[in-house]
Amino acid sequence: MSVLPDPIPRLQAAAQALQTPCGDGHIQWHRWGPADAGAAGPVVLLHGGSGSWMHWVRNIDALVASGRQVLVPDLPGFGDSARPPGGGDADDVAPALEQGLAELLGAQRCDLVGFSFGGLTAGLLAAAHPARAARLVLVGAPAMGVSDAGAIVLRGWRHLDDDAARAAVHRHNLAVLMLYRPEAIDALALALHTANVVRDRMQRRRLARTEALKDALQQVRCPVWAIYGREDVLYSGRMDRLAEAFARGPRFQGLTLVDDAGHWVQYERPAAFDAALAQVLRA
Question: How far apart are CA 94 and CA 126, in angstroms?
Fold first, then answer.
């Protein structure tokens, strides 16, 4: 990766880098906050598809300031982590992730927060390993049988040699899928997205278009919350249906919608998102 703008270098310098086995390589983890996670356990943040730990760049400081230990991986197949053994979707990522959490945390529970593809992964993990999560927080998560991802057309960029042309495509794709307000597509968002997408080795993901998360929530035993951007393009005109789908989960506690925010809600409206997440983590 080229040099990324602040606050990435500061966060990287403050993090403890950890690795756990994954297939032929490892999962790369980043840990901030106190060495002892305390009685509450750590907050584990799972990023979205074509992403990395940097999807949470605007939220880590607030969690650390609240006294929580924050543990963030590059999910298998993304960022600096190896592909998971056996396949290329969330159902392959979840077992490798749980193996890593068991090595790092033992039997200690955590608050599991997943964005988009990471939310689907978190739901599958919590369903398969009920002793792992004390809380499950789903952020813009797919696979609830409601979204209309087929209406979103992203532009290809891998065939382009010109940096300016690639940047224009990345800006377009951020506007189409990730961020609601044009001014939210700032230099940091563009730099992070550019650094993340080139390291995506999981490009044939299928489960996001199914009801895999909706089904998994029937098996989840911990309390479940959801936080979405009100203007999330994946659920345009479908928020009522999304709320109804969540309400069928036996442990579902509530859906918070953040105004003036799209899919990447925790980046676009960090203060509002951090406040909503803090309220959930105190519940």
Answer: 9
